[in-house]
Write a structure and sequence with these properties.
Length: 128
């Protein structure tokens, strides 16, 4: 498992792994949420040496961003609704733990609960 709670500050190798791993997990999250290809953007920002950078999944109705902004709080995944891929401020901010990236199904359930995106029951989405 990836060490989400290990700081990326001044550790270029760890920052690179953080961004690569977060991007991979958000790609799996998009699949778990049944987001059609082309309906979302997946962006990375390396940022500076003192921070982790961020990875963003931006769909037409949900904006999810992963970074180590709240490392001491354990939270690092921002989830909010939006109205299209040009909406960067969206609805209210909700935060969940970075460790949820290790359980993409649970993260998808949190996204659904916060945004109302897709069916609440994963069995329903697989049956469709």
């Amino acid at each position: 498992m990836f060490q989400w709670d290990k700081s990326c500050s001044y550790d270029e190798q760890h920052e690179r792994r953080f961004l690569t791993t977060a991007r991979s997990r958000l790609r799996r999250l998009a699949a778990e949420l049944n987001l059609p290809p082309g309906s979302y953007d997946l962006r990375s920002n390396k940022a500076g040496v003192a921070v982790s950078g961020e990875v963003t999944l931006h769909h037409d109705c949900v904006y999810i961003q992963v970074s180590q902004f709240g490392l001491s709080s354990g939270h690092g995944i921002l989830i909010r609704t939006c109205q299209g891929r040009n909406d960067y401020s969206g609805g209210p901010n909700h935060f969940v733990a970075l460790a949820m990236l290790d359980d993409v199904c649970a993260l998808a359930a949190a996204v659904r609960a916060i945004t109302g995106l897709g069916p609440q029951d994963p069995a329903q989405s697989r049956a469709a």
